[in-house]
Write a structure and sequence with these properties.
It is globular and about 50 Å long. The two termini are 25 Å apart. The chain is an alpha+beta fold. The structure holds glutathione. Glutathione (GSH) binds next to helix 1 and helix 3.
Amino acid sequence: MIDCYTWITDNGYKPRVMLEETGLPHKIIPVDLRKKAQMEPEFMKISPGHKIPAIVDHDGPGGTQVTLCESGAILKYLAEKSGKFYPSDPAKRAKVDQWLFYGSATFTTLAQQFGHWTIRSPIKAPPAQQHYEANLRDMLGVLDRHLATHDYVGGDYSIADMTMYSDVHIHGVRDIGLGDYPNVKRWHGAIEARPAVQRAWVPFAS
Ligand SMILES: N[C@@H](CCC(=O)N[C@@H](CS)C(=O)NCC(=O)O)C(=O)O
């Protein structure tokens, strides 16, 4: 059984999608960021940087208990555990890693800044808004050019798509619009239609 500590945010949906896609037995444990639950000492033993998502796998390799934070590391762990959504061929795996790291280190990180400065911050700072909107549009352009010749970012549907989907779904679709990015739009539609993605993208009861 895998305990998945998460919340209704871009990063929070990533392991939920993977757990639904793989069918690995799991329990969702909400960590209410509005109440600063991520700062609880017990949670910070699992995620020292007080960030969701995090997992505890009670049936890790060799019967060990594995605690893990960082969405990219969690997606890789679940892919290796399940043998799904991560190619075994080393060259193909390296390309999935490239997009997985781009997604979790670059795309989501900058998209979060867009979300902060453009959507959530009560302080309006036009230079920051313009900067992060330009960043987000640039990244959507990067993705669009790549997807012009690829069905999914790493070849077949994989954990690299899962890491990129969240911020495209939230900020690309809702805040920017995908009209200028037809290949991203096609890719987003294909992922959004997946039953596992629909099961994962449900809010918690409040
Ligand atoms: N690099 C981390 C970022 C995780 C992250 O930014 N989590 C946010 C929610 S999306 C969070 O928990 N924020 C609460 C805090 O920093 O105290 C990952 O990919 O998992």
